[in-house]
Amino acid sequence: MAFSPSTVIWRFSQRTCLRLRSRMSWRSCLGMAMVLQSYAVHLATCGQTALDVDQHMLRKSRVEILEQRFDSPDRATVAGWSALLPQSGSMTKEERDLVGEEHAVALRNRMMLEGWLQAQVQPRWLTKRRGDHLILDVVPGARWTVASATWHLDGSGLGELHREAAALLPSGAPFSNSLLREVQSEFALMAARRGHATFHSGLMVIQADTVTAAAHQQVHLVLVARGRPSNPEADQELEAATPASKHPLTWQGKVTFHGLGGAGTQHAIGGLRPEVWRHVVDWSPGDLHKGDALTSSVQRLQRLSSVRHVAVEQVLRDEGDSLHMDVDVQVQHGAPYDLGLELDLVRNNVRYGPRIHLDIATLNARSRGGRRAVEVGFGYVAAEPFSSFSRDAWLNSAEWSLHWNAERLGAWPLPLSRFKAESEPRTRIDVGLDHEIWPEFTRTQVQSEVSYVLKTGRVHNGRVECVPLKVSYVNLTNRSIAFREWLEQEASPLVAGRFINHLNLGSSMRWSQSWDNTWLSGSVSLQSSWGGWLGQTLAERLSQDPEQFHPETGAWMVREGVPLVQHQRHLVQFHLNPQGKGSSRWSTHIRIQGGWAGVGANTVSLPLEHSFLSGGANGIRGWRLRELGPGNLNPSDANLVVDGLGDVQFMASLEWRSNWNSPWDLAWFVDAGNVWLHGDNAPPVTTWRETEWGSVAAGAGLGVRYDFEVMVLRVDAGLRVHDPVQEEGNRWLGQRPGRGALHLGVGMPF
Fold first, then answer.
1. Cβ–Cβ under 8 Å, residues 405 and 372
2. Beta bridge partners of 677
3. Which of 101, 324, 447, 741 could bond to 472 as cystine, CB 3.0-4.6 Å?
């Protein structure tokens, strides 16, 4: 179904024909290593003799903060320091005392480097039955901050960077060694982007005055950018004694591939067409060398399907009054074919579960840096997998697929020269068959589409995807007897229209943008899809046979029982993550989502794949999937509409996530929203116009997440705070017995 699934992928492939055999060997080696490790631990703990009387066994070490202040180290920092301490070992009493003192001194030095200049650290030993515990008691004191930062840049020829440099180290910033190193690196990057390729972070000298403002625990800093040394190969003492000059501008010089240029370039890069590598390698001799152009070019080369590794050799050529940077690009190519096995964990608004993919691909198709692949997939993907272990649930919760797709660089039929290199245009063609087994029916979809993808934004964190043409045929078969009788005898035409065989002929657009700054990070996404109007108009103008149109709706009948549907669907999503100054163990996450969908004059109701659903592990978690709505609809009236299915959606979620104890996380959440119908045929209790705020559901709950590094497994328990399907006066928690839902999910909900 076309629900734009979010997928977590485990990829076990290395672009080699022996991939499957290598993977089996890796698993065998891993199993043997675990057995040997367990045996070694057994020998170390159970096979040893009793310790001597004067021997002490260390069992655990940790850091404790005795006096908490607003600027004291947070829990994540303390946990990192504790992880550096020894957690086991055998030693004498003298050795134990020495170990405690050594680690106390090391921790104090580490804290001084991070700004706690007056920190006091004392080791303490606790004797336990099973061994001793080392505790480092810390009184951090005040964390010193930066009172002022004075930059001296004119002597090095970098005076134009004064304004940008001042923003790197504002007053009040912690006097931290890690922060100062970051400032050095950021300033060097700024200089490189302005064309000063000879400056590096080692030429930034920082002088600290810890005496003048010591009463206020503040430091005055002086940052001096040194000039270009006349002999960069000399040692530091000789370099310091040698007069330095200003850093000149550097210009882009010659570019070669494996030392070859011109006619030899195409062969050196592995048969890529000249227009492809000219587009990917954005290097124009004579332009100002800003540093990031070469980095971006290498990254784009590495993203080509046929390229495995890229190495770059840079040579600075001094022509007296100017500098030129010559580069030679060396490319290591991979195998021309790719055989991969993937385990996907698919999750979307409707279905989720494990899925296996096998794909066979040819790389660098037609020398355009793309790929062509055949993909076969099978999975146990259901509306709520593992929620029921009955025989019917297991046998009616599967899907398989067969797809052929081709991808290439560029936006056919436009030439690559029409696009900027950083936009990385892509054209993709996909033809496939998807077969889904539901408890009530079997759904088969044959589809083909052409899509174009462009990157946007100043830092290329935006994305535009355009699908000018998508054709899909949906066929429902193997309908159960109960489901068929319900559609024919009890369901309204509005309901029956959701489950018809139909043809889609349409287009779609998607734009997304993400950002990350000091106070807020997040993303926004806009999606729109539409179809059916052009096909219906052409059919009405070209066909003179009235039997080719539905007698009641007038829809063009592609074949008997298969109309062309007219639809439009729009969705906007915001994901926000405020960046506060609190503990790094806590984070706040916000989701706001709204959608609207409608049909044309010749379509009764939206097909199932274009509708919005409520509840579930990724929705309003006080309800199971499709237990909520639309509007104030009670499930006993589900014959009027399909319960939990709507044409309008609003959803807002707030989560507080806490790193409890790695890899365990906790989350407290609040969800609100619902789905509604619209139109003259919709029952009043299902529309926003009639129900308004009384139909908004609210829930709250607690979640536990376990991070496997390659995936996150979570369990969320939601409680219904406001239940709009109940009678007025019985909707709020406290007015009725508490109800909720328990969800097993894969990945974060948003």
1. yes
2. 687
3. 447
Render 187-221 in DSSP notation, one character per residue.
HHHHHHHTT-TT--GGGEEEEEE-STTGGGTEEEE
- Rounded distance, CA 505 to CA 533, Å? 9
Q: In sequence order, what DSSP letters do the residues of 319-375 get, joined into one string?
A: -SS-EEEEEEEEEEE--SEEEEEEEEEEE-SS-EEEEEEEEEEEEEETTTTEEEEEE
Indicate the residue type of 676.
W
Residue tagged 């336990």 (tokens): 128
The confidence score (pLDDT) of residue 388 equals 40
Residues facing 472 on adjacent strands: 447, 504
Name, in order, each residue with C-beta under 8 angstroms of 215's C-beta and a sequence gap of 6 or more: none
Cα-based torsion angle of the residue sequence 550, 552, 553, 556 in order, rounded to the nearest 10 degrees = 10
Task: Kindly state whether residue 713 falls inside one of the protein's structural domains.
Answer: no
CATH number at residue 300: 3.10.20.310
**Number of domains the chain is built from:** 3
Find the farthest-apart pair of alpha carbons in the chain and give their distance in angstroms, rounded.
Answer: 104
The ranges of the chain with pLDDT < 50 are 1-51, 234-235, 237-242, 263, 385-395
Which residue matches tokens 């309008």? 648
Q: Are 175 and 145 in contact (CB under 8 A)?
A: yes
Residue 433 amino acid letter: L
Are 105 and 160 found together in one domain? no
Please give the C-alpha separations between residue 58 and each of 52, 54, 79, 107, 120, in angstroms, as whole numbers: 14, 13, 18, 19, 23
pTM of the model as a whole: 0.73
Straight-line distance from the first to the last Cα atom of the chain, in angstroms, rounded to the nearest whole number: 20
The pLDDT score that the predictor gives to residue 583 is 52
Q: So what's the pLDDT on residue 27? A: 32
Tell me, yes or no, whether 408 lies in a domain. no
Strand ordering across the sheet containing 307-318: 250-257, 323-333, 307-318
Q: Tens digits of per-residue pLDDT, 73-108?
A: 987 788 889 989 998 888 888 888 899 999 999 999
Q: Using an 8 Å Cβ cutoff, are 677 and 648 in contact?
A: yes
CA distances from 587 to 117, 526, 580, 584, 654 (A): 29, 25, 8, 7, 11
Element (H, E) at 166: helix 162-166
Instruction: Compute CA distances 679 → 207, 316, 329, 492, 683, whole Å.
Output: 71, 69, 61, 15, 9
Q: Which two tokens stand for residue 109?
A: 């030095």
